[in-house]
Amino acid sequence: MLETIDTGLAGKRVLDAGCNRGGFLRLLCDTCQIAQGFGYDPAWGAIEDARRLAGRRPLRFEIAQTVPNGWDGFDAAFSHEVLYLLDDLSAHADAIFGALGGGCSYYAVMGVHDASPLMAEWHRAHAEELGLPRLYGVDEVIDVFHSAGFEAAASRLKVGFVPVSGHTAHARQDNQSSLDLFRWLEYYNDDKLLLRFTRPLSN
Hints:
By secondary structure, the protein is of the alpha/beta class. It has a domain at about 15-115 and about 130-160 and about 190-200: 3-Layer(aba) Sandwich (Rossmann fold). Helix content is about 35%, strand content about 25%. It has a 7-stranded mixed beta sheet, sandwiched between helices.
C-alpha cells in the first residue's frame, strides 16, 4: 500500500479505520515519520494490544465502530480489507469525509468484492458463519463514496512475491486438496485494488 500511494506522509496526521493491533500506524511512525496517528477498531482486545505496543510513539487508539467524535482534520486515512465487513457503507463514507481535510485522501484496500472469483467463493463459504454483509461490487462502493462527496480513483497494488506458506494453511482450512498458487497470484495482482477517495478542496 505504501509503495502505491501518491502522497508523502512525513509530518502528517493519519487515520487508520479498522486499525486492529495498530501495526500499520507503528510502521508509519517508524518509516514515514508521521506527526500523529489515530486508529479505531471495534475489537477491544486488539485496541488494548495497540495501546500497549505503541510505546512512546505519537499514536492514539479507541474502541469504536466508526470515527470517534472530535477526530477530524486528517491529512490521510487508510483501511485494509475493512469495506467488505461494513453493513452501512454510506455511514462509513460520510464519517471518513467528515474526518478528512479538504484535498486529502482516504486509501482503502479492497480485495473482497464480487469481481474477484476467489473471494466470491470464499464469501459464499463463510458469510453466514462470520455474519458478513452481502458481497459488494467495486462500482457500488465507488458510487457510495461519490454520493458522500468524494472524487474516486483506483489502482492495482504494487505486489512483489506472495508468501506460499500462509495460503497453504488457508487451503487446508477450507478442505482444499492443494494450493492453487496461480489463483492467489491473480487475486493479488488483478483483484486486490487500492481505492483512493479524495475530499475536494471546496468541501
